[in-house]
Amino acid sequence: MLKWDLDLHALTGAGANGVTSTPTVGNGLVYVTSWNGLVVAVKQNNCSVKRKYDTQPGSVIGVQSSATLTADGRVLVGDSRGVVHCVAATTGKLLWKSVIGDASIDHIWASPTVVGGRVFIGIASHNDNPCTHGRLVALDLDTGNVLWTLKLVPYRICNSDTSIACTSDADCRTGTCVEGRGAGVTATVATDPNGSSVYVNTVGCFTFPSIGDEDSILKVDAATGGVVWKTRVDPPEQFGACANDGSIECRNSADCAFVTGPASHRPSTMTSAS
Asked: What domains are defined for the chain?
């Protein structure tokens, strides 16, 4: 039997009001995030709106992940432009917000994880076209200051051998030095019971070969961001080109289906990936 429902469109009157996150429940309230960028707190017993927080008034930026409620009464949420917000649960007042990404390419899909006075949050891309530089960020819970950032792919790699990090073409035996992309963090970070380590998964990028610590699970020191161990679940990949159109970069023959030809095993000679 339905007890109540929350009509976000009626509440806001406009915008993309879809909800893809799990509601967060605490202190008699239910916190709901939506694609219109709102965090709405309603009473658990009757759905009456207690308070709202807009992650960026006047700009529909979207929140796709759940809010995180701390034991001392803070609500944390990441938005689709790479910003983490910390709000007082009792008043809805903004305590701090921290810009940890580039709004044009970076996206926070995961919910913040809070342990040991730190906030752990992953960065991925909007939709893999293009992919971003995946990374894990630790913030100070009280200030929002960045404590450390773990970069999960090299900034630049050789397109003739994606295992080689480079700063210029001179670092590559053949080919060119191109921007590395991938290893986005879309899942919420897990921690061990005492908060000394965090565990993070990285995902692949469908528009770029799998490089660095992409397609991996890592155990990370929570205090320093140092990698304790890591395991790849899929092998690294190289650039290729479609046999029927050498200007099109690919990873396997499925990527070349639209030009009706298989992938070639030779490295691409293009200077960047789409």
From this structure: 1-97 (2.40.10.480), 100-156+177-233 (2.40.128.630)
Two tokens at 80? 């689709």
Length of the chain in terms of residues written? 274
Q: Is this prediction's pTM over 0.90?
A: no
Structure tokens at 77: 């949420």
Cis peptide before 130 (omega within 30 of 0): yes
Residues 158-182 pLDDT 10s: 988 999 999 999 999 888 999 999 9
* Cα–Cα distance, 208 to 102 (Å, whole number): 19
* DSSP, residue by residue, 4-46: ----HHHHHSSS-----S--EEETTEEEEE-TTSEEEEEETTT
Structure tokens belonging to residue 249: 């970069």
